[in-house]
Write a structure and sequence with these properties.
The complex is a heterodimer of chains A (306) and B (323). Chain A has 306 residues and is an alpha/beta fold. Chain A has helices at 29-48, 62-76, 88-100, 126-140, 156-169, 186-199, 211-223, 239-246, 262-275, and strands spanning 2-4, 17-24, 52-59, 80-83, 104-108, 120-124, 146-151, 175-181, 205-207, 231-233, 255-256, 282-286, 290-291. Chain B has one domain (30-286, 297-322): ABC transporter involved in vitamin B12 uptake, BtuC (Orthogonal Bundle). The chains are: A alpha/beta (306), B mainly alpha (323).
């Protein structure tokens, strides 16, 4: 557990508050970005509100995360908890007991399995993530066009995205040749795409559904020398991909955001709950936006690891 | 005699059946492009599995190889990126990077081997520890993101994975050469005989004046160097490494060794069997992707069934043969 102390207590006259933040560790590109944004936000808020102390912990699995949260309550006496649950089910009871102890609870991205526990819910929009991509396919492909899909790790979140995508292209005459799991992993996506390329003589476009997977897919396409036949849409907003969109790469026309910076929104809003009279409880859903060559600069964070 | 022959040929028969099944389900399966893809992809696990055959035959185990590969890929990429401004964008720089991978692998293997032989800690525990260490190190070096080669070095290095002699690409050639050398080493050298002797009974081997610790250390060093070699051909494929590189490779390598007929408790090693095991595993993956026979949720289950089945069949044949 890393303690990021605010230094001078009560410097601004505000009351001393401790905010605990518990997030998954940086094992995947997206989580790496999320960790980076969390640390940057803490740094910035520390200078603005020196009397607020942040306790950041990262966990590699659900049970470690439960331990972290228990430690925060027992030893750090937190006033609020910002948590991105590793898994919904196992985290529900521990977060509920934090709430019952009278603390403010902000849940990020993956909801808990019981409703009404959290004060504030901040998340990306998985349905929109699939729909925005699907709308783009529908608008830019003719009827009869053939596409393939790479899915993420088998989860309900992945199902939501794929269902929304399929609904969006419904009735367009676009044919989905196949959808397999690339597990949000570059190597797996490379393999699956190689097999797609062997299996299907005609592919007009690929929905890679994640930027890490998109990079693996692009590599498989270029190895088979079929770059001119198809374009690829990833997702999330990885800096390499955003850069290529800025440079108008014909193979990567657009991207759909699912910003790792959503953790920043969650931390900021939690702090504002203590620092302002603005109402902060409720649900805050961050829209999935289309990154195009025109607006790409706004989504480009060259310093982030993601 | 007939029975024993069948036992030895078991994995080969399974491989042939799988190839026929793949061809029957989708004729594109035997297209040169698909064969190149599958063989080249198998090369990483293949190289590691050849090394793993020696470690397992000597009665050891190495769980750290997947993480080690990720870590070595990370430092290789960082080394090449750091050197390029000084040494220029040329093959010299690539060779230095390859040196980092090989030397790093040798060093990592030495660390594992030394802890096992000198500190006398169980191989399972040592490599479970180093598995976590290597994985964290690469995540830390990448700052939680991805380490990527600069694009000019990438372009230069890329042919190492994608070209070769006709459709036989360099990874395939490397895998074939290492497999042949490994088989010769196991069958026809003193080192190979010692490895088998230690695996079947290390006390007897010690009384027979075999330097058990040195041979054990050497198996881990060999495995480390082969992980380095695998990294050399892995890096040019996607030009990047991250915390999720090489997850599960150790289990795939161990499974290949076992499917190939090497005993998990040590004593008998069969390198060519390992090669067949590697091919069986990657063909299953390929065939499932090519045919959409079952829900992709079940791919892992099918691989699991085949692994268990392969070992069960061999066990039964072995007891039959011994009887």
């Amino acid at each position: 557990m890393v303690g990021v102390s605010g230094g001078a207590v009560l410097a601004q006259g505000g009351e001393k508050k401790v905010i605990g933040i518990s997030i998954p560790s940086a094992t995947h590109g997206f989580m790496g970005g999320l960790n980076w944004h969390a640390q940057e936000t803490i740094k910035r808020l520390n200078t603005t509100y020196p009397h607020i102390e942040f306790v950041l912990s990262t966990a590699g699995d659900a049970s470690k995360q439960v331990n972290d949260i228990e430690d925060m309550i027992a030893t750090r006496n937190i006033d609020a908890l910002v948590v991105l649950p590793f898994e919904s089910e196992p985290l529900t009871a521990p977060v509920k007991s934090v709430k019952e102890a009278g603390k403010w609870v902000t849940v990020v991205d993956r909801g808990l399995s019981e409703e009404g526990i959290e004060d504030l819910y901040v998340a990306g929009d998985n349905t929109a993530f699939g729909r925005v991509a699907g709308d783009y396919f529908k608008a830019h492909l003719k009827s009869g066009a053939k596409i393939v899909i790479l899915r993420g790790i088998p989860t309900t979140l992945d199902n939501e995205r794929v269902e929304a995508f399929e609904k969006a292209i419904d009735g367009s005459g676009i044919e989905i040749l196949d959808k397999q799991h690339g597990n949000w992993n570059r190597d797996d996506a490379f393999k699956v795409m190689q097999d797609y390329l062997t299996k299907f003589p005609q592919i007009d476009a690929v929905w890679a559904a994640d930027d890490d997977m998109a990079l693996g897919v692009l590599e498989a396409i270029s190895a088979s020398k079929r770059e001119k036949e198809m374009w690829v849409i990833g997702g999330a907003g990885m800096k390499e991909i955003v850069k290529r969109i800025m440079d108008k790469d014909p193979q990567l026309p657009v991207d759909v955001t699912y910003p790792p910076a959503l953790i920043s929104s969650a931390i900021e809003m939690t702090v504002l709950n203590f620092e302002s009279d603005a109402p902060m409880s409720g649900r805050f859903i961050i829209g999935s936006r289309l990154i195009t060559p025109e607006n790409a600069a706004k989504f480009y964070f060259p310093d982030s690891p993601f | 005699m007939k029975r024993i022959n069948f036992h030895v040929l078991g994995p080969l028969v399974a491989l042939v059946l799988l190839i026929l099944l793949g061809w029957f389900l989708n004729p594109a399966f035997l297209a040169p492009a698909n064969i190149t893809n599958v063989l080249a992809r198998s090369a990483f696990i293949g190289l590691i599995a050849v090394g793993m055959t020696f470690v397992i035959t000597s009665g050891g185990l190495d769980l750290s190889v997947g993480s080690m590969a990720a870590f070595l890929a990370g430092i290789t990429i960082m080394a090449i990126n750091a050197l390029a401004p000084y040494t220029g964008v040329n093959w010299g720089t690539v060779l230095l990077g390859m040196g980092v991978a090989l030397f790093g692998g040798l060093l990592a293997g030495t660390i594992n081997g030394t802890l096992i032989t000198k500190a006398r800690i169980e191989p399972f525990i040592v490599t479970l520890g180093t598995m976590g260490i290597f994985r964290s190190l690469v995540t830390w070096l990448a700052d939680g993101g991805t380490l990527s080669l600069t694009s000019d070095m990438r372009t230069l290095y890329r042919p190492v994975y994608y070209s070769g002699i006709g459709w036989i690409t360099w990874p395939i050639i490397t895998f074939a050469v290492v497999a042949i050398l490994g088989e010769l080493m196991m069958r026809h050298t003193r080192f190979g005989r010692y490895v088998e002797a230690i695996g079947s009974n290390d006390r007897v081997a010690r009384y027979s004046a075999v330097n058990v610790n040195r041979i054990k250390l050497m198996t881990y060093m060999l495995l480390g160097a082969l992980v380095g070699l695998a990294v050399i051909i892995y890096v040019p494929r996607l030009g990047s490494a991250s915390g999720s590189t090489g997850i599960g490779w150790e289990l795939e390598a161990i499974a290949s060794v076992i499917i190939g007929g090497t005993a998990l408790k040590g004593g008998t090693g069969r390198v060519w069997g390992t090669v067949v095991g590697v091919l069986i595993l990657s063909l299953i993956d390929n065939i499932l992707n090519l045919t959409s026979l079952v829900s992709p949720y079940l791919n892992g289950a099918i691989q699991g069934v085949i692994i268990v089945l392969a070992v069960v069949l061999q066990r039964e044949k072995r007891t039959a043969g011994e009887r």
